[in-house]
C-alpha cells in the first residue's frame, strides 16, 4: 500500500471519498479527515449528506461540484458545526490535521466528560446474545438451503 506516502492506491468507498481522491490526485491523511467529517455528520443527522440514489458517478459529481455539506446550525452547537466545516473543506490543504482537530473547541468541550464507549455499547447491545442470534440465523439459513437442495434433487 503506497498510501503511507500520500499516493493514490484506488482503495476506499466512493461514498466517503474526498474530492482529491475522486480527481485521482495524490492524497494524504487529509482525505481521512474528509471521511471523518462525513461519517460524524451522518451519525449526527441520521442520514448521509449526499444523494446516493443516482449512482456513484452522480455522487462523485455532487462531492466535486456541490457545496460541502453542513449540519443545520439551529440544531447543533456552533462548535460541532465548526468541527464539521473544518473537516469538509474541498481543498485538502485547508483541512486541519489530526492534532489540530484534537485541539478543536468541539473536542475540548467534551474532553473531560469521561465517556466510556465500551460501557455504552455493552448497555445497548449484549454482544454474546447478539452473536448467538446471528449464529442461529446462519445455521437456519444453511439448514434450509441444504434441505431445499436435497428436495430439488429428489432426495427427500
Automatic annotation (TrEMBL):
Gene3D superfamilies: Transferase(Phosphotransferase) domain 1. Keywords: ATP-binding, Kinase, Nucleotide-binding, Transferase. Pfam families: Pkinase (PF00069). One of its GO terms (molecular function) is MAP kinase kinase activity. Signal peptide: none annotated. Its EC number is 2.7.12.2. InterPro entries: Kinase-like_dom_sf, Prot_kinase_dom. It catalyses: L-tyrosyl-[protein] + ATP = O-phospho-L-tyrosyl-[protein] + ADP + H(+); L-threonyl-[protein] + ATP = O-phospho-L-threonyl-[protein] + ADP + H(+); L-seryl-[protein] + ATP = O-phospho-L-seryl-[protein] + ADP + H(+). Residues 1-107 form the Protein kinase domain. Belongs to the protein kinase superfamily. STE Ser/Thr protein kinase family. MAP kinase kinase subfamily. This is mitogen-activated protein kinase kinase. It comes from Aegilops tauschii subsp. strangulata (Goatgrass).
